[in-house]
Amino acid sequence: xxxxxxxxxxxxxxxxxxxxxxxxxxxxxxxxxxxxxxxxxxxxxxxxxxxxxxxxxxxxxxxxxxxxxxxxxxxxxxxxxxxxxxxxxxxxxxxxxxxxxxxxxxxxxxxxxxxxxxxxxxxxxxxxxxxxxxxxxxxxxxxxxxxxxxxxxxxxxxxxxxxxxxxxxxxxxxxxxxxxxxxxxxxxxxxxxxxxxxxxxxxxxxxxxxxxxxxxxxxxxxxxxxxxxxxxxxxxxxxxxxxxxxxxxxxxxxxxxxxxxxxxxxxxxxxxxxxxxxxxxxxxxxxxxxxxxxxxxxxxxxxxxxxxxxxxxxxxxxxxxxxxxxxxxxxxxxxxxxxxxxxxxxxxxxxxxxxxxxxxxxxxxxxxxxxxxxxxxxx
Amino acid sequence: xxxxxxxxxxxxxxxxxxxxxxxxxxxxxxxxxxxxxxxxxxxxxxxxxxxxxxxxxxxxxxxxxxxxxxxxxxxxxxxxxxxxxxxxxxxxxxxxxxxxxxxxxxxxxxxxxxxxxxxxxxxxxxxxxxxxxxxxxxxxxxxxxxxxxxxxxxxxxxxxxxxxxxxxxxxxxxxxxxxxxxxxxxxxxxxxxxxxxxxxxxxxxxxxxxxxxxxxxxxxxxxxxxxxxxxxxxxxxxxxxxxxxxxxxxxxxxxxxxxxxxxxxxxxxxxxxxxxxxxxxxxxxxxxxxxxxxxxxxxxxxxxxxxxxxxxxxxxxxxxxxxxxxxxxxxxxxxxxxxxxxxxxxxxxxxxxxxxxxxxxxxxxxxxxxxxxxxxxxx
Lengths: 379, 379
Known about the structure:
The structure is a homodimer. By secondary structure, the first copy, chain A, is α/β, with parallel strands linked by helices. The first copy, chain A, has helices at 33-42, 53-67, 88-100, 115-127, 141-147, 185-202, 204-213, 226-245, 263-269, 276-293, 299-311, 324-337, 364-378; strands at 3-4, 10-26, 47-51, 75-78, 108-113, 133-138, 152-157, 160-167, 172-175, 344-349, 352-356. Chain A contains 13 helices and 11 strands. In chain A, the strands form 3 sheets. A 7-stranded mixed beta sheet of chain A has the order 1-2-9-6-5-3-4, with helices on both faces. In chain A, strands 7-8 form a two-stranded antiparallel ribbon. In chain A, helix 6 (185-202) packs across helix 8 (226-245) and helix 10 packs across helix 13. The termini of chain A are far apart. Chains A and B meet through strand 2, helix 3, strand 7, strand 8 and helix 8 of A and strand 2, helix 3, strand 7, strand 8 and helix 8 of B. Strand 2 of chain A pairs antiparallel with strand 2 of chain B, so a sheet runs across the interface.
């Protein structure tokens, strides 16, 4: 870090450089290790532990007994979650609690919950004292393989999803398979959908693993077994590999954006009744069909994508796909978000992706025909 | 940027590194150069130009005629300023405008106004698409030497100042002395107070310059003259020098925090009727007296600080200093904000600073006697 005056006529110049580094580890949250992890991360400073209503209901008592017992000064605070609470108001609530609790810069926010909770907690941490540390502990499969690993956080404003956001790397990510036991089968499938997406887009090994043993995650007693952990860890490693190359998204052509072009519009149009993972599955499937019709993905590739979704009991059809204006608007939004080029990820083969930049390569007829084909294939 | 697995037992690790670099340049905003600066920064993308009511009233017509004429697609948007509008609501307003305007990631926010406006615009830019570029153009002396150069931005929540914030380096800072002509003498003195602070804390050359010719900035016709520009540029370079060593404030002992320990409480207690610069001047003067009574700053040093303030017509007394509980609460807040140590900057000599870390070194009697001495010296 230094200042210099090498621009002709500049009064001064400032260079800044910011580095971060974090580990994703397995640890038992509901037993002692969480406390010692936090102690070492915060050097004994108190942590503000934020939990979702679900975590409070199922695990609140146990968490409190290890986190705030005896000399521990950690505070456990409950916030409301769900898409409508992913708001600036929730962030302000956490900032005010942290302020009242006199959290210092070297203290820590700890989020324990699903993706929405982690997004809110990360965003509050990014703003408190202009950046305080945080620990992410995902309690759903989707959160463990996706939101917890990401360095993105943010909230919605009105109906605009993630309109306010930041990149804020956590200090640590803790994965605990014990949480998965109580996740509903529908929510497990949402996590599996993101895992399939990653496999299709970037990681054929993960895809094969899901074909082989993905269903194990549907069995609540087996979700913390070694083979289940291996699948989750593989998914996390795949995600980290994608992030490592491009953490701040300077390159807007991102393979992990597969399944995230039409899906935001589907979610919004259902008032967020359609869960994120289900919307992503539909989008991945449609992308695979489009790719196949464009001659990019071969028939065997398309079949294996659709078969894997089918095998895991993940739906690939939504009636809103027949709302053509909705799809066109979603493509418009993607263009604006991705620096005025479409950058639509399409599978080239399992684990390999190409990007379509030009809207002209996606004529309305292609989209209509692809939707019709997907409808038929999904029946 | 790479991921690795070198922590024993870690599923994965992620390292991130983020670099930024910006120039602070003089340019004429109200003539053509602004347009070409923006064109080169945004590569022709539209900019969202945000102005304060004062800028709108005095310069709005001229700005619009150069920014949105003919083929330019820049949008000029007015937001309300003042401490009470430095809020999450103002940030949300800008994010919604940017979204409606379909600003892309490679577009630019441009803030033209005082410190409050620049703080709001910078914070909105830091959040839009998780970080969009912005250009800072300060129109007051205080904004030009302080807020515009800083990489900090943020807003208040309720009565908690800057409770939500971020570090977000701008793409460019443009300084235009033409704006200073219309700044009130009182506001010019607020800017001078921050310049004096920087001189006392870190830059004896700047201090001498202010002794020699600081009053030139009080003459509205001379504010854009060469000697005035030299003073402003010296102040900006001094500030950049401080920031360059410690842009993200990992070191919480900051010389530029001189005058920023008691002043936030004074401002808050007056409902922000007391301007920031005037509060800073009082705090700097009290710090100098305390330092003198502790045997750190010699009598000559103390006299020169008080004389410079007097010479520039800047008050160094406020009756709220006699509210001892207010001062104690301000010291408590500083400790919480500075990582649980006081880190009170005190002048050792002109341009040199020491830090007092321990509250025990500031017994109540010392503070009371210093307040009494300052009151007498300020009469």
